[in-house]
Write a structure and sequence with these properties.
The structure is a single chain. The chain is 33% helix and 22% strand. By secondary structure, the protein is α+β, with helices and mostly antiparallel strands. Strands 1, 2, 3, 4 and 5 form a 5-stranded antiparallel β-sheet that branches. A hairpin with a 2-residue loop joins β3 and β4. The protein starts with 29 loop residues before the first strand and ends in a 10-residue tail after the last helix.
């Protein structure tokens, strides 16, 4: 299955709030988000690995992937009482609409009063093996201009966006 594709058995109807019908779903910018997933419920019962793996699958079905980081500790004071919890930071590259859905699912699935999620970056570079060739070519051309002390022509920078990939080492 390719990155971002939904599995064959994925049912769009399961998505809360009709995300699939939203007019901006395909054109909305993607950002890198981090959400803190609880390891214990409010009755201090531990969520097992199998339970977390089901959540992972739900998130993958929405965003196409996730990065699970090492568990960390959190502390909050609510009504003058200290609460401590171990949480799992999870990074997700998706749209704001998708992360809103993931927050809803997380709150319901883990039976939480609140979920903390934040945007890590507005500038995310997702580079695959095909685009890396274009980046190497782009930097070699830019370096030539810098070495000669010349400004890079605007027309040339615009061509970088659609610069064709080639095996020709002369370019």
């Amino acid at each position: 299955m390719a990155y971002g594709e939904k599995p064959e058995n994925y049912e769009e109807e399961e998505i809360i709030g009709g995300l699939k019908d939203h007019p901006n779903t395909k054109t909305t910018m993607k950002y890198l988000w981090e959400i803190l997933v609880p390891t214990f419920n409010n009755e201090e019962k531990h969520f097992g690995l199998k339970y977390h793996k089901i959540w992972d699958e739900k998130v993958r079905n929405i965003s196409g992937g996730l990065t699970v980081l090492k568990t960390t500790k959190g502390q909050w004071i609510i009504d003058d009482k200290l609460f401590q919890d171990r949480m799992i930071p999870v990074r997700i590259y998706c749209t704001e609409l998708e992360i809103d859905l993931i927050i809803q699912i997380t709150m319901v699935y883990y039976h939480q009063e609140a979920i903390l999620c934040y945007r890590i970056s507005d500038l995310v570079k997702l580079v695959n093996k095909h685009s890396i060739e274009s980046i190497v070519i782009k930097h070699s051309i830019i370096n030539k201009f810098f070495e000669e002390g010349k400004e890079i022509p605007l027309e040339l920078t615009e061509k970088f966006i659609t610069f064709p990939l080639t095996d020709d080492p002369k370019i």
